[in-house]
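Entry
Fold in token form

___
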Amino acid sequence: MQRRFCGCGFPVWVQYCFSDSRCRTLFWSRGDDMRENLSRCPCCFKTLNINEIP
């Protein structure tokens, strides 16, 4: 997994899942007590897109 940051600065973890000829990107929040699959940033609620986050 790679650590990336939303435009607002919230850290997210990116996981690439490969199957056949497709690649799927999953975003995760990682805390001491919680790990959650994300589609939006929990801080600013913007939709997470791998091509838009550094």
About this structure: The first strand starts at residue 2 and ends at 5. The mean pLDDT is 85. Residues 6 and 54 are 8 Å apart (CA to CA). DSSP finds no helices and four strands in the chain.
